[in-house]
Design brief:
The complex is a heterodimer of chains A (149) and B (389). With 149 residues, chain A is mainly beta. Chain A has 1 helix and 9 strands. In chain A, the strands form 2 sheets. In chain A, strands 5-6-7-9-8 form a 5-stranded mixed barrel. Chain A has a 3-stranded antiparallel sheet with strand order 3-2-4, with no helix packed on it. The mean pLDDT of chain A is 91. By secondary structure, chain B is α/β, with parallel strands linked by helices. Helices cover 36% and strands 20% of the residues of chain B. Chain B is built from 13 helices and 11 strands. In chain B, helix 9 crosses helix 11. The model of chain B has no long low-confidence stretch (mean pLDDT 93). Classes of the chains: A mainly beta (149), B alpha/beta (389). The complex binds zinc ion. Zinc ion binds next to loops of chain A.
């Protein structure tokens, strides 16, 4: 490994919303101890207006295998704050239902488009590079990748 | 509902990508004065004004409502602004109905506008509304959200890109009959399919433009309405429903529309929409959304949507014409768009549609849709049933 690569760091796009390598890839949600509701992004207090709100919020790692509910491939370059590479590369987006009954949206790993994506596919949660920041660090976030189960 | 409410007049500007010839208040004045002229009214007849404007960042100026109040005729009268994103226009209409139905006001002017031509890039602004952290940084936006909803719809309803293109062709054709429509262009199925992919499966010609323009509608109590208009249009049913995009509760727009329509139908006594409603002005900025309305508004079962599209069900000469005006796909001054649906539905009941008139309309339907599908954010659906009786 060269010195340059050794200095290149992986940083999370948002701290505390997902695990970072070398940990197993998981999205982190909150669960209310009273109404048992899940919240993502993680919440400090329960957001269910019917809940008494004095319950503790527990941090939970969501299951990392789900199903693709809906998807698209974005062919136009979104304006900032999206960090578009130059030249722009189209990217897939998907909504994936996880075992807890939560559906989460995010990008789909590169290399997948309308030729190989399908509603109902098995998907894995992965933690991958979203973009490179101005210091040359890899900014990481959750993505979804078709699984072969 | 309190006292009965009718629509007595409508007024619209010509919609364009940029109105260089006039200011924002000028557009409001244009729509307002045309609405007054439509029923030979003067400002003396108006008791209150409800004004609609969507995200003002789109208009390039803050608090545009203050600048437009005078042009809307608000001097010495109650005035308020309503804003529910894309549903702003229909929320403005709802607020006007609530004002009259309460019995506190007899005649209320609803006027809404947008001047999207002032913003260099509407997507930049919409992206920052969508969700500043989770969504826009990750490349999630309103267009790819609708595209995802479409991919799910294709699976559930069985429609294809060709069916979406057929809707686009129909709407662009209808726009030629509407003197106010923004886009009046000839489009073939092949043109739609060959237009650049924005977010698969949505191509450029499956998507709405952004427009400058204003729309005004006058609502009146039963007693006044009968005196003011030869054919008053009665608000027989209305409903509004808010949904929140919560992880784990993916209902999506379709379920929300179904529920809102059911409530409006119940109020209006509509139990067989396909037999009882003759024309629909639905809020569909993308071709795929219009197609799904056939089912969610109760005109057919899910399995029959494709059959209806192929048989031209929603065409001008079809069983129930959808958006004779050309709809949102051809005209989209965001804050005014949902009020245009109501104005156009009212025009159909009044029989003033000229080249876009559907024969023998006794009931017309208008819908509105707005908000943001970003996580934790709200979206708004409205449905209004207008009738001759
Ligand atoms: Zn709770």
């Amino acid at each position: 490994m060269s010195d340059q690569n050794a200095q290149k760091k992986q940083v999370p796009a948002i701290q505390g919303w997902f695990t970072m390598p070398p940990q197993e890839p998981h999205i982190i949600a909150s669960k209310c101890s009273l109404c048992k509701g899940y919240f993502f992004p993680p919440a400090q207090v329960c957001r269910n207006p019917n809940c008494k709100k004095d319950g503790a919020m527990e941090s939970v790692m969501l299951g990392n295998k789900g199903k693709l509910e809906a998807w698209s491939v974005n062919y136009f370059s979104p304006p900032p704050p999206y960090h578009a590479p130059d030249p722009f590369v189209p990217f897939g987006v998907g909504m994936v239902s996880l075992p807890e009954g939560i559906s989460i949206t995010g990008q789909i790993s590169s290399g997948y488009d309308e030729k190989n994506l399908e509603v109902g596919m098995d998907m894995d949660v992965v933690i991958e590079k979203l973009y490179e920041d101005s210091q040359g660090n890899d900014v990481m976030a959750w993505k979804f990748k078709p699984a072969h189960r | 509902m309190g006292q009965r409410v009718g629509i007595v007049a409508t007024g619209q500007t010509r919609y364009r990508s940029k109105r260089k010839d006039c200011s924002a208040p000028d557009m409001v004045y244009e729509a307002t004065s045309r609405a007054l002229a439509d029923a030979a009214l003067t400002l003396k007849d108006i008791d209150a004004i409800i004004f609609g404007l969507a995200p003002e960042a789109l208009d390039g100026i803050n608090s545009m409502d203050k600048w437009c109040a005078d042009a809307a005729g608000a001097r010495n009268k109650p005035f308020m602004r309503v804003h529910t994103g894309g549903a702003t226009g229909s929320s403005v209409a709802n607020a006007a109905v609530y004002h009259v139905a309460s019995g506190m006001f007899d005649t209320v002017l609803a006027v809404a506008m947008e001047r999207v031509g002032e913003t260099p890039d509407a997507q930049t602004i919409l992206n920052r509304i969508y969700d500043p952290v989770v969504a826009s940084d990750f490349g999630l936006n309103i267009i790819n959200h609708v595209a995802m909803e479409t991919s799910r719809g294709m699976e559930a309803y069985g429609f294809t890109e060709e069916h979406m293109a057929m809707i686009s062709v129909k709407n662009h054709l209808n726009a030629f009959n509407n003197p106010y429509a923004h886009l009046q262009i000839n489009v073939s199925v092949e043109d739609v399919l060959k237009s650049p992919v924005v977010c698969w499966p949505l191509k450029l010609l499956d998507c709405c433009p952004r427009s400058d323009g204003a729309c005004a509608v006058v609502f009146a109590s039963e007693k006044k309405a009968k005196r003011m208009a030869p054919v008053p249009v009665w608000v027989n049913g209305m409903a509004a429903l808010t949904d929140i995009t919560v992880p784990g509760e993916i209902r999506g727009g379709q379920e929300q529309i179904r529920l809102t329509a059911a409530r409006a139908y119940q109020m209006a006594g509509i139990d067989h929409p396909r037999e009882q409603i003759q024309v629909v002005e639905c809020y569909a900025p993308f071709s795929s959304l219009e197609l799904m309305y056939y089912e969610t508004l109760g005109f057919c079962e899910r399995k029959d949507v494709v059959k209806l599209v192929e048989s031209g069900f929603g065409a001008m000469d079809g069983e129930v014409p959808f958006v004779p005006s050309g709809g949102v796909m051809c005209t989209n001054p965001i804050g005014a768009t949902a009020l245009i649906r109501i104005a156009e539905a009212a025009i159909q009941v009044m029989g003033k549609g000229e080249k876009r008139q559907v024969p023998d309309v006794t009931n017309a339907l208008a819908t509105g849709y707005g908000g943001s599908p970003g996580p934790g954010s709200a979206s708004f659906v409205t449905v209004m049933v207008l009738g001759k009786k």
